[in-house]
Write a structure and sequence with these properties.
Elements: H1 5-12, E1 18-26, E2 31-35, E3 40-43, E4 46-50, E5 55-57, E6 70-76, H2 80-88, E7 97-105, E8 111-130, E9 136-144, H3 159-165, H4 175-178
Parallel strand pairs: 2-4
Antiparallel strand pairs: 1-2, 1-7, 3-4, 5-6, 6-9, 7-8, 8-9
């Protein structure tokens, strides 16, 4: 499957090809789609609201080794009435998906090809910072999907964790006694 067929064709024909970032925040109550330009944009079958210079994204790094870097999304120039709403809705954030897409455009700012996902993470914490006495910045951090890869999905493989979920289940009572035990198989 070929990627960016129209983008490559436009570039090869000598057209100016531009790029922008699109971000989809999947909050618990709604999905908010924004892009780094101005005005509304129709791309990938969705409508994206432009935030222009008011928004920024920290560096997006690949997870290497056991390090899972965070990405911070910032929105400056926030209306004071939205500050209380942002703080009140911080419960709609934790563990929800955020996706960053790369979108290519021709010289007339018409989308070429579909948006291409370059980052998928889980939203973590939303907080408000004061840039000046009248200026506020809303910051939202996200973590890669690998951040909690060492943690069992619903608990630990231990008797206490299992009994917390199912009080009468004794299936893991002997788990600690079975560690580092060698058993021959088949039993004859």
């Amino acid at each position: 499957m070929a990627f960016f067929v129209n983008t490559v064709a436009a570039y090869v024909s000598g057209q100016i090809v531009q790029a922008a970032l699109l971000v989809a925040f999947e909050f618990a109550d709604q999905t908010v789609r924004v892009w780094s330009g101005l005005g509304d944009l129709a791309a990938g079958g969705e409508t994206w609201s432009g935030i222009g210079e008011l928004g920024s994204i920290s560096n997006i790094e690949s997870a290497i080794g056991d390090v899972a870097p965070q990405v911070t999304f910032s929105l400056s120039g926030v209306d004071p009435s939205l500050i209380a709403e942002a703080l009140a809705n911080s419960g709609n954030v934790k563990g929800r998906n955020v996706t960053v897409y790369l979108q290519f455009f021709d010289s007339a700012m018409q989308p070429l090809d579909c948006p291409y996902a370059i980052y998928l993470g889980l939203m973590d914490v939303m907080k408000v910072k004061a840039d000046s006495p009248t200026q506020r910045i809303v910051e939202l951090t996200s973590e890669t999907l690998f951040t909690r890869r060492g943690v069992a999905p619903w608990g630990y493989l231990s008797s206490s964790s299992q009994r917390g979920l199912y009080p009468s289940d004794a299936g893991l009572d002997y788990m600690s006694a079975m560690q580092n035990v060698t058993t021959g198989w088949p039993w004859l």
